Amino acid sequence: MGRTPGWNKKINGKTLGTTTMAEKIALKGLTKRFGSILAVDNISMSVAGGEVMGFLGPNGAGKSTTMRMLTGFIEPTSGTAEICGLDVTRHPVEAKRRIGYLPEGAPTYGDMTPESYLGFIAEIRGFDGPEIRRRIEAVIEKVDIASVLRQPIDTLSKGFKRRVGLAQAMLHDPEILIMDEPTDGLDPNQKHQVRKLIRDMSADRAIIISTHILEEVEAVCSRTVIIAHGRLLADGTPEELLARAPDHNTVMITVDADKADAVKQSLGDIETIKSIKIEKVAGRDGATRLVIRPTKGALIADAVSHLLHTKKIKVQEMYVERGTLDDVFRNITADGNNEAANETGNTAEGGANA
After folding, report:
1. Given this model, what pLDDT does residue 335 score?
2. Where are the domains positioned within the chain?
3. How do 287-294 and 273-280 pair as beta strands?
4. CA-to-CA distance for 155 and 26, rounded, in angstroms?
5. b vs e for 18-35, b when ≥16 Cβ sit within 10 Å of the residue's Cβ?
6. Contact (CB, 8 A) for 248 and 284
7. Cβ–Cβ contacts within 10 Å for residue 333, how many?
8. 250-321: same fold as 6-98+174-242?
9. 47 exposed, middle or buried (CB, 10 Å; 0-12, 13-18, 19+)?
């Protein structure tokens, strides 16, 4: 079985799937097959207390399957998933006591009200008497569902249903939170509220968020893991991954169109510039943008600014491009797809020759 491409095995010298802090979650060689389909392929990683990990991947990458194994809903074909040192397969009850899980779709009982549903969950979790009311009141305030507390869940909007699901995941104040699309269906104000809640809870918890909203990763996650075809392809902070963006640290300047060639020639004196591209600026006649890309790892903004100032070159606009996680995500998962396609082809060829 082929492994992750070599360039993805480390980011900034850190081996994939490792952490220097105390582990609360540990996956070791986690693998899941459904018949001939390999859904999760030998994933090893750990998550420490205080980390909010964004778990990213295209549809069908194996994210939900990984989370279902981690939460004990399905058993792995091989490998282990541990929660606070407890093997989820061997000690399922003890492990699940430490987990708050918000699955995709936030399944609930539609004929119940949020109040009765949360009371039901509290009893399942082993609470009784005044403690049930205390727990319910605490999560109601945190996720802001007081206005629909006695309304049947089936009649609630998608956003309110999602918040009821989040409330049940938080009800027992777990050490670990695993959430699949926690802000799905929420309006911008509600998203901001939930993201702040996640940040506030992260100090002493390990949190995993699976999401397709890459702005959410930058907003709340201290770490990002990308998988495709069941394989772990990248692991680093959002800033470390942004450094892989094609336009990361590219300097953009806008000048008068008739000065563009002269400015480009002047910028050639800076050795750490890799390339300069001249392009038109949409809707701005007489203006031209220079896209100035640095050599790998170089920071050129100060050098460009100093040269422009020294040579008294007037610019209409200047800024530094960070790049986007969207670009990084596409590049990494595309490379993973290409590798998988090549392996499939090699396997088929080998079979035919056999």
Report:
1. 64
2. 6-98+174-242, 250-321
3. antiparallel
4. 39
5. ebeeebbbbbbebbbeee
6. no
7. 20
8. no
9. buried
Residue at token pair 């095995």: 9
pLDDT of 101: 94
- Distance from C-alpha of 8 to C-alpha of 16, rounded to nearest angstrom: 8
| Cβ contacts of 17 within 8 Å, gap of 6 or more | 27, 43, 44, 45, 46, 232, 235
The class that CATH gives domain 6-98+174-242 is alpha beta
Residue spans of the chain under pLDDT 50: 1-21, 339-354
Spatial contact of 80 and 40, defined as CB atoms under 8 Å apart: no
Unique residue bearing structure tokens 């909007």: 157
- What pLDDT score was predicted for residue 337? 54
Regarding the domain delimited by 250-321, which CATH topology (the fold level of the hierarchy) does it fall under? Alpha-Beta Plaits (3.30.70)
State the pLDDT at residue 342: 44
Give the closest residue to 281 by CA, choosing from 323, 253, 242, 304: 253
Q: Go through the chain and tell me how many residues it has.
A: 354
Mean pLDDT, rounded, of the chain: 87
318: tokens are 């200047």
Distance CA 212, CA 53 (A): 13
Residue type, 90: R
Which residue is listed with tokens 């392809």? Answer: 233
| CA-wise closest residue to 322 among 241, 231, 208 | 241
